[in-house]
Design brief:
mainly alpha; about 0% strand
């Protein structure tokens, strides 16, 4: 774990941050850029594609909201957090790679839902590892630099995919190649965290005992949130805020494609977003410290 006096990032902190580098690739290619446009093309009906993807994204958010508290309770057991993170990360990468094997819109939509759920669940455990990789005084710095690293990853993988699209005669082959590259990206840049990051904070109880007490813990947590008025309002505000952010991220190119915006222009806009996200992540980390 990092010392308070250290200014440089430890190898454990760097390994943790690199996972944001890989998941931003998934978020950029599958959630935001390439898949939504391709899905509309496969479906052949832009309005219906926008509607179906909206329902799918809403379903993912709802299921995640229901299941994540239970997964969080299970993750308190020693070594379960890493196993669950690795399992969901690998499952998500495999599903994304499998997208290249089909042109069925039904299978593509199902793969989008399943990979998105795996992505959300893996991110749940990834975020919770912040207490295992650094101390309280460094959390703002490590977390916001991880965001910055993620923007670099998202921008870089988008540049690579754009090059593939430009130099491949078949757009379908280019898109399928982007799915495979995204899956490989996810696996490769997960390896540092897999080997170097370990769960250091956990409950002494076993899985059976933790599962038995899970509902009681959840009731206590929700009761504590409801009893704390500022925390209650913060949770409600964050729910609506982050849901809005998620909607913009997942629906932007689908909406743009539906109203006739060019693919090149939308990809350039996403690249600018990634570029701007890098310095502002670091800036807001410094503001959080102050």
């Amino acid at each position: 774990m990092a010392k308070k006096s250290e200014n440089k990032f430890s190898s454990v902190e760097k390994s943790w941050m690199l996972y944001d580098f890989t998941t931003n690739g998934y978020a950029t290619i599958i959630l935001t850029a390439i898949f939504p446009i391709y899905f509309n093309v496969v479906l052949g009906q832009n309005t219906l594609g926008l509607e179906l993807k909206g329902y799918a994204a809403s379903f993912v958010m709802l299921i995640s909201a229901i299941i994540c508290p239970f997964l969080g309770a299970i993750a308190d057991v020693n070594k379960m957090k890493k196993r669950l993170w690795a399992g969901f990360a690998l499952a998500g990468a495999v599903i994304v790679g499998a997208m290249a094997a089909t042109s069925s819109w039904e299978l593509l939509l199902a793969a989008y839902v399943l990979s998105n759920l795996a992505y959300n669940f893996a991110m749940l455990f990834y975020d919770s590892f912040i207490t295992d990789v650094t101390d309280h005084e460094r959390m703002h710095k490590v977390s916001t630099w991880a965001y910055a690293v993620g923007y670099v990853g998202g921008g870089f993988v988008l540049l690579v995919i754009t090059a593939v699209l430009m130099f491949t005669t078949s757009s379908v082959i280019a898109v399928k190649t982007s799915f495979i590259l995204t899956a490989l990206w996810w696996v490769i840049f997960s390896l540092p965290m897999l080997f170097n990051v370990h769960q250091t904070h956990f409950s002494e109880k076993n899985l059976s005992e933790t599962t038995h007490e899970m509902l009681g813990q959840l009731r206590q947590t929700f009761g504590a949130i409801w009893a704390n008025k500022p925390l209650r309002y913060f949770i409600l505000a964050y729910f609506f805020y982050i849901d809005g952010v998620g909607t913009v991220m997942t629906m932007a190119t689908s909406y743009g494609n539906t109203i006739g915006l060019g693919t090149t222009g939308m990809i350039l806009a996403l690249l600018v977003t990634q570029l701007l996200g890098l310095p502002f992540s670091i800036l807001f980390g410094r503001l959080a410290d102050r």
